[in-house]
Design a protein that fits this description.
The strands form 7 sheets. Strands 4, 7, 9, 10, 11, 12, 13, 17 and 26 form a 9-stranded antiparallel β-sheet that branches. Strands 3, 5, 6, 8, 14, 15, 16 and 27 form an 8-stranded antiparallel β-sheet that branches. By secondary structure, the protein is α+β, with helices and mostly antiparallel strands. It is built from 12 helices and 27 strands. The termini are close together. It is a single-pass type I membrane protein. InterPro entries: Calret/calnex, Calret/calnex_CS, Calreticulin/calnexin_P_dom_sf, ConA-like_dom_sf.
Length: 573
């Protein structure tokens, strides 16, 4: 058969799977004419669905990810800081030589080690980053921006990558944007060095944090106060435990709105005026610290009824429990047998000294004579609740006619009140730094980027973190490996796997590899082709033939069907 030029149906046609799929709307060309198959048996429809199932299963198993080749990201737009560490050096960074105040000399130094290297289990050969190498030590390193960032009419976007290669027990991986001051000396970078923003992950114990803190300057006093963003609603545990590289992004907008993103997904958002603790602006009024509650102020909403009198029949001395007078001793109760007896099989230890240890007594065991009896020892009636018990009488409670409510100090104007409607206009910063203590080592940092253009930041992320994500995804176990691993943990899954694979194959064989089905499709195609040329269709001829001729055709059809069955499910032309 040649598409577009069929002159004669001279050989049996058995549809392969792809042809089965289009059976309901199957179209062929015969002698330049379009012929539509007039009828598709229900069996063929079922066969088509089974074919789709088989193809989908094979495609999902065979799908393989292409290898990812690393290329160092390059800034594509205005930016203030960009560092990918692919040069392999720390030439543009400064290691702190300072010591922390108010702690032991042994741990005061910032002597934690930093290295530029690839990840231990790198999926991108050639991709290097900054690695915190030491445990239980202070680390401090910083680098200058290309120019100071000034908060005015453009947003701030800060982003960088973190990978906890060995997990994280207790420690941080946050960055500090160091304020631009005349005293800023990166050689002396310590925990008390003024910063404008602190941002990034931190974890200790089961407390998983994602910091966003900014230092706000009080316009009245000139003092700085830390403002903490609300805690994200999302569960952050996975980002600390999956040992994958995650992208942390902070976006601050001139309208005071902010967004915190992990892997380009928003996990926290809000407004600097409404969603920080403590609030940026203090309250206009405060409670008067000198106000005191009057001595006669009555805060009791309820009091005992002073006019109430205890009823004459109220017996406060009646016990809460009394013996059940209706109880009867069970038959067979052994009054003379003790509940416990000395163990007759016990022997006094050879080293027992009666002068030192006292008279030896066998340990007590349950009396075997009581095992078949309802009880042993002196029988006593059981105790039940006393129906006449009322307890100590108390007057009922009534509303207090003198109730004045809960006392509160009066409000006065807040002498420290101010209103800053633009907290986005923070202190300028000129450097980025990592000042960390960690009980875990090998924390991997990479692709620091600071800009005022979100599109530029997203392109940088796509060229850097996007490659890591693709490489890590390609290295994950395939579908078959995941299925085998799951079955090793839950052996009953093997039964489901067998049924899932075997049942469709059996049904496909039954409906695709039977001669009658294939031959009926062939006859339908022949009928369609003949009718399109104005010839008498096989169906019309069959109606005009005599009964003996029909029997001969049925025998011939069966013979051809058997021939087709022996050939299998392929396509023959």
């Amino acid at each position: 058969m040649i598409l577009g030029g069929v002159t004669k149906w001279d050989r049996p046609l058995i549809f392969p799977f792809p042809f089965c799929i289009s059976c309901p709307n199957f179209i062929i060309l015969s002698r330049g004419k379009i012929i539509t198959l007039p009828h598709c048996p229900q069996t063929m429809l079922l066969k088509a669905r089974l074919c789709v199932l088989l193809l989908a299963l094979s495609w999902s198993v065979a799908l393989l990810s292409e290898p990812v080749t690393y290329k160092a990201p390059e800034p594509k737009g205005e930016h203030y800081f960009a560092e990918s560490f692919d040069r392999g050096t720390l030439d543009s960074w400064v290691l702190s030589k300072a010591k922390k105040d108010d702690i032991d000399e042994e741990i005061a130094k910032y002597d934690g080690k930093w290295e530029v290297e690839e990840m231990k289990d790198s999926k991108l050969p050639g991709d290097k980053g900054l690695v915190l190498k030491s445990r239980a030590k202070h680390h401090a390193i910083s680098g200058l921006l290309l120019r100071p960032f000034v908060f005015n009419t453009k947003p701030l976007i800060v982003q960088y990558e973190v990978n906890f290669q060995t997990g994280i027990d207790c420690g941080g991986a946050y960055v500090k944007l160091l304020s631009q001051t005349p005293e800023l000396d990166l050689d002396q970078f310590v925990d008390k060095t003024p910063y404008t923003i602190m941002f990034g992950p931190d974890k200790c114990g089961e407390d998983y944090k994602l910091h966003f803190i900014f230092r706000h300057k009080n316009p009245k006093t000139g003092e700085f106060e830390e403002k903490h963003a609300k805690k994200p609603d999302s569960d952050l545990r996975t980002y600390y435990t999956d040992k994958k590289t995650h992208l942390y992004t902070l976006v601050l907008n001139p309208d005071n709105s902010f967004e915190v993103l992990i892997d380009q997904t928003v996990v926290n958002s809000g407004n600097l005026l409404n969603d920080m603790t403590p609030a940026v602006n203090p309250p206009a009024e405060i409670e008067d610290p000198n106000d005191q509650k009057p001595e006669d102020w009555d805060e009791r909403p309820k009091i005992q009824d002073p006019d109430a009198v205890k009823p004459e029949d109220w017996d406060e001395d009646a016990p809460a429990k009394v013996q059940d007078e209706e109880a009867v001793k069970p038959d067979g109760w052994l009054d003379d047998e003790p509940e416990y007896i000395g163990d007759p099989d016990a022997l006094k230890p050879e080293d027992w000294d009666e002068d030192m240890d006292g008279e030896w007594e066998a340990p007590q065991v349950s009396n075997p004579a009581c095992e078949s009896a309802p009880g042993c020892g002196k029988w006593e009636r059981p105790m039940i609740d006393n129906p006449n018990y009322k307890g100590k009488w108390k007057p009922p409670m009534i509303d207090n006619p003198n109730y004045q409510g809960v006392w509160k100090p009066r409000k006065i104007s807040n002498p420290d009140f101010f209103e800053d409607l633009h907290p986005f206009r923070m202190s300028s910063f000129s450097a980025v730094g990592l000042e960390l203590w960690s009980m875990s080592s090998d924390i991997f940092f990479d692709n620091f980027f600071i800009t005022d253009d979100r599109n530029v930041a997203e392109r940088w992320a796509e060229d850097g973190w996007g490659l890591k994500k693709a490489a890590e995804g390609a290295a994950e176990p395939g579908l078959m490996s995941q299925m085998v691993s799951a079955a090793e943990e839950r052996p009953w899954l093997w039964v489901i796997y067998v049924l899932t694979v075997a049942l469709p194959l059996i049904l496909i064989f039954v409906f695709c590899c039977t001669g009658k089905v294939g031959w009926r499709v062939i006859e339908s195609l022949k009928a369609a082709g003949t009718a399109s040329e104005g010839e008498e269709s096989p169906a019309e001829a069959a109606e005009e033939d005599e009964a003996p001729e029909k029997e001969e055709e049925e025998e011939e059809e069966q013979s051809k069907s058997d021939e087709v069955s022996s050939r299998g499910c392929g396509l023959t032309i």
